[in-house]
Amino acid sequence: MxxxxxxxRIRANILAVDRMxxxxxRAYEIVVVDDGSGDWTYEEAAAAAKGKRHISVHRHPMNQxxxxxxxxxxxxxxxxxxxxxxxxxxxxxxxLEVFFKIQSEDQADVxxxxxxxxxxxxxxxxxxxxxxxxxxxxxxxxxxxxxRDTQTGLKLFRREVLKAVFPKVLVKRYAFDLELLVLAHxxxxxxxxxxxxVEYRGKFGHIGLRSVYNIxxxxxxxxxxxxxxxxxxxxxx
Length: 237
Description:
Layout: E1 2-3, H1 10-24, E2 30-35, H2 41-49, E3 55-60, H3 66-75, E4 81-84, H4 96-106, E5 110-114, E6 121-123, H5 126-143, E7 155-158, H6 159-165, H7 176-186, E8 191-195, E9 197-199, H8 209-228
Parallel strand pairs: 1-2, 2-3, 5-8, 6-9
Antiparallel strand pairs: 4-7, 5-7
Helix pairs in contact: 1-2
């Protein structure tokens, strides 16, 4: 769970995720990384973890980006299966039951939430839907991956996938999810999609021109490294 300025809700969200996994009956751990928050996110997360050895909280004094936070969380994890879960809980983690079911049926290495799955239910602003659709067509044009969405925060990975891919991931912020999945697909790991229910909670509603430019720039950098420079293949797998 990467977290940035989630002070008002992070404690309740961590405890909700803890209850959910406990109800699933699986052995689990929760790894929270505070990515240089300017509020009391770390203190609230640490309070949620107090007395619970299966919850660990880590932080960096400076904001490094979601990609960095997830790589750091992976470094502190131990399980065979790794779940990425945004700490704002816009996507209900109880949907993971469906992810594990799809993984078992498809024998997939990766299962990702897809807002474009026909069974997904979305409750978020039209502007974000338009931006998401535009980005989908750009990604389809550049990378020809058999995926309808790369940006949804809920994802399930075999540990071996991240061990192979993370050392080559360079993007820390805007196109991190894309680079991760491009590499997983490039190296031959199987990826399945799962429906999600997205309940927009008012955060990240404004997407400015600078953010759009940064997303485009990071995306084109991934394309350059993959198709033109062949950077990802230089050291083998």
